[in-house]
Design goal:
InterPro entries: DgcN-like (IPR011669), DgcN-like_C (IPR035086), DgcN-like_N (IPR035402), P-loop_NTPase (IPR027417). This is EBNA-1 nuclear protein. This protein is α/β, with parallel strands linked by helices and 337 residues long. The protein has two domains: 115 residues, NAD(P)-binding Rossmann-like Domain (Rossmann fold, 3-Layer(aba) Sandwich), CATH 3.40.50.720; 194 residues, P-loop containing nucleotide triphosphate hydrolases (Rossmann fold). The chain has twelve helices and eleven strands. The strands form two sheets. Strands 7-8-6-9-10-11 form a six-stranded parallel beta sheet, with helices on both faces. The protein has a five-stranded parallel beta sheet with strand order 2-1-3-4-5, sandwiched between helices. Helix 1 links the parallel strand 1 and strand 2. Helix 1 runs parallel beside helix 6, helix 3 packs parallel to helix 4 and helix 7 crosses helix 8. The longest helix is centred in the C-terminal third of the chain and has 15 residues. It is globular and about 55 Å long.
Amino acid sequence: MQIATPYLMFLGDVSDRLAAKTAHGIADWRPEWCIGQIRMEGCAADLGIPDLSLTEAVEKGCRTMVVGVVNAGGRLPEHWVAEIVAGLEAGLDVASGLHVRLGSISEIAEAAQRNGRQLHDVRHSDERFDTGKGTKRPGLRLLTVGTDCSVGKKYAALALEKRMRERGFDADFRATGQTGVFISGRGVAIDAVVADFISGAVEWISPAADPAHWDLIEGQGSLFHPSFAGVSLGLLHGAQPDAFVICHEPTRTTMRGVRHPLPSIADVIQQTVASGRLTNPGIRPVGIAVNTQALEEAEARRLLDDLAREHDLPATDPVRFGVDGIVDRIAAEFAKA
């Protein structure tokens, strides 16, 4: 799948920033690809890049309109269809990370064919996966896990890749969600894989490697989330991680989209180790990544210090304070690997 850059980011009329997390992720990690955004009336998300009309976007060189939003069920709202058709009519390709296939909507499919434009459904892979085997394979792997969905698992893995490479590690980010695929140009959206093949798909994106090579695998959902735990468990078994980082958002009391209370970090560590031992008996935590965006700096640092003492693990906000502490722990724990 070759998606033409640069992008015009379509945000629709989403009600909050998290609903546009795909767009935010691309803009944060590939800002050079994001020329502008297009928003409908009432949109509560803002990437901090220019608002452009379709005509302006084409004049500035945009080649693909990216539907940079997520929602429960991955559906495309009916009132967005006309906006996407207009993008195709203006000469843009369209790429989406939603579950619904763009070509399954007749107005969009007809507009693409009429204008000779490409439709890219990033969430859907044409690859055929085997069932997972759980057999130990060479190489080292780290998985980001969470107390909830949308807590920074992708950002933590990307920050670790960047810093580990800077410090001389042989390390690669492995995308398991649509945003990660947009950012890295490769990977599989695990939540769109038939359940029997989830662990096999993760084995496919993180194959046998040099014994010193690290695959930094993007986590999805949470083992405690009633909507997404099945995906999280299959991902854990297929990743076969030697190490994991727990990701957390400290202001939440219930999990996103449901009424269930947020699990503790200790709960997540215990359950991840218990479940992960099925395919890697040596699995262990190496750090805590906390999204402290809602906290003042002094409060954020106090929280991180408290978590580090409580769990005897380095704790940081990867975006705000970097990940050197976690990389130090990885280097120390796996020095002989």
